[in-house]
């Protein structure tokens, strides 16, 4: 029992000595003050504080992006032809007698559809959606400058819903494809398109 009391006493004395040493060797009043957040260098803080800006990542300017990319975005108008069976129950005898057309004849229907694409090369290659052109018999492309081109369907991929078109042109404005692998959740994205025939609408969102 005496041994434990002796150990406790020694520990208490060691604590008092350590406290005294800290007070004696503490920072002097004339020393440099502790830096606050306003004097920190322009680096990413280890603390979870929002930074106004980050080196190498300039502030977004949507207007500048639209001015730069917009001329490469095109409106696409396609003509679709579908053949449907027409049933004429009441006029079956009339068609059979005078025209020799059976009751279940086919009739051709034409319709228009609209979409968006973007030029990826100065010689006129364009990427769009497969569902826009998959049934098209005629494809017309209109640029921001209102130049019209007849487009040829080069290839389609229903699985990824991507199609490649080609127009005859030179020195066309185009955009470079980016790398989606470096896109981060929370970043801004900008969409420029022609939904339902409305020319060059702009929409912003967040990944």
What does this structure look like?
The protein has 207 residues and is an alpha+beta fold. Helices cover 20% and strands 32% of the residues. The chain contains four helices and nine strands, in the order H-H-E-H-E-E-H-E-E-E-E-E-E. It has helices at 2-24, 62-69, 92-98, 130-133, and strands spanning 73-86, 105-119, 125-128, 136-142, 148-150, 152-157, 162-166, 188-193, 201-206. Strands 5-4-1-2-3-7-6 form a seven-stranded antiparallel beta sheet. It is elongated, with a radius of gyration of 36 Å. Mean pLDDT is 75; it is low at 27-53.
> What would the average pLDDT be, to the nearest integer?
75
Count of DSSP H/I helices: 4
Structural class comes to alpha+beta
Rg from C-alpha positions? Answer: 36 Å
SSE order, as H and E?
Answer: HHEHEEHEEEEEE
Amount of beta strand = 25-35%
Overall geometry comes to elongated
User: Helicity level, as a percent range?
Assistant: 10-25%
Low-confidence stretches: 27-53
What is the topology?
Blueprint: H1 2-24, H2 62-69, E1 73-86, H3 92-98, E2 105-119, E3 125-128, H4 130-133, E4 136-142, E5 148-150, E6 152-157, E7 162-166, E8 188-193, E9 201-206
Antiparallel strand pairs: 1-2, 1-4, 2-3, 3-7, 4-5, 6-7, 8-9
Features:
elongated, about 30% strand, 4 helices, single chain, two-stranded antiparallel sheet, alpha+beta, about 210 residues
Short synopsis of the structure:
Helices cover 20% and strands 32% of the residues. It is built from four helices and nine strands. The strands form two sheets. It has a seven-stranded antiparallel β-sheet. It has a two-stranded antiparallel ribbon with strand order 8-9.
